[in-house]
Amino acid sequence: MPSTESDAASYATTSETDFYELLELPSSNTPLTPSLLRKSYRKASLKWHPDKNPSPEAAEIFHLLSIAYDVLSDPATRAAYDNARNARLARKRRSEAFDVNRKRMQEELESRERGAKKARVDGEDAEERFHQLLEKLRAEGAELRRKREEAIRAAAAEEEENKKEKGKEDEAMTDGDGEMVDGGCSGESRFSEIDRTLRVRWKRKGNEHIDEQHLRSMFSKYGAIQDCVVPPTKPEKEKKLRSALIVFISIVAAHTAIHDALDPRLKDLIWASGKEPDISHNPPTPEPCTSSPKSKPSTPARATTTTTTTTTARGPELNRVSSFASFAGTPRGSPFNKNAAAQSPDYESITLMRMRAAEKAKIEARIRKEEEEEVTQEEGKV
């Protein structure tokens, strides 16, 4: 406890203790009466007196209570203490405000650092994911390329195998001299490949799905297709219409396809040669076949006919004498052979085509007749 007023004033300006809080008094802005000061001092002294409070800090607090009473009881000392206390509180508030700003700035800095770190990590993760996806796409592309190459090789091998099997079948169908096994002549069709070829066109826009496989599926209902050619197009020379060539194995299939109703997706369907093949006349008589290179050529049709006619005109006697023993058997390719026309591969096709045409004409005639009868009945009712 200070012994003099100067010591009390010096202690008041240097002490860090808040005497108002220690004595449980209101702040320095509130008027402090001597009676209130004495009452508060007496109450606090009873609470912290060392004889009544066994705590270790009781003696020190009791000593501070005496100093606080001496400082606050003197107006001049109290004023000096209040000034020092207010300055101390102002410094504390400024320090706290500075700490708050510093803490806020520190938090903002840490937040920015975390954001930058997160962005860097996210960028690294995105780049890593991109490289992983790129490697995956490369692997898938290589796998698809390998499968496509395997499919192409398998298709080529299958086509080669089919050609070999077809060659074996052709060899099995012919004997050593190149004749048919059944003894007939291996006739050739009088319809060339161009006669069995149709040209189809369609609009490019809206029909991008039409390709070779689609055309084969569309026209296979008419008959077996030998080949289907869809020319590739260049992007810089794209036209409004696309076209393709369809080669049928049979002339009947081509004829049926071109006379059937046109698919609405197609623009037109015409003969590739520009005109319909002529099937009005009978197939030409095939050339006579020889059984072996040593056999003699058969007698021409004109000479045979003349000889027969002459022999018949000579009378029964000559007929009895002549038994045609000097003539060889009628060659299979001779005009006298009734199956000569049937040996042509076009015979059955043309016959079937004509039968279909006749049946179609018959049905159309019947429909027209029924329509005419219906019209007549309606007119009679009117």
Automatic annotation (TrEMBL):
TM spans (from-to): none
Biased composition (Basic and acidic residues): 161-171
Record GO terms (molecular function): RNA binding
Cellular component terms per the entry's GO annotation: cytoplasm; spliceosomal complex
Spans annotated as Disordered: 156-188, 276-346
Domain of life assignment: Eukaryota
UniProt xrefs under Pfam families: DnaJ, RRM_1
Principal localisation: cytoplasm
Coiled-coil residue spans: none
Gene Ontology biological process terms, A to Z: spliceosomal complex disassembly
Annotated keywords: Chaperone, Cytoplasm, Nucleus
Compartment annotation: Cytoplasm; Nucleus
Signal sequence, renumbered to the chain: none
SMART domains given in the database record: DnaJ (SM00271)
Feature: compositional bias, Low complexity: 288-312
Keyword match Nucleus: yes
Keyword Transcription: no
Ranges for domain J: 18-85
Full protein name: J domain-containing protein
Species of origin: Tuber aestivum (summer truffle)
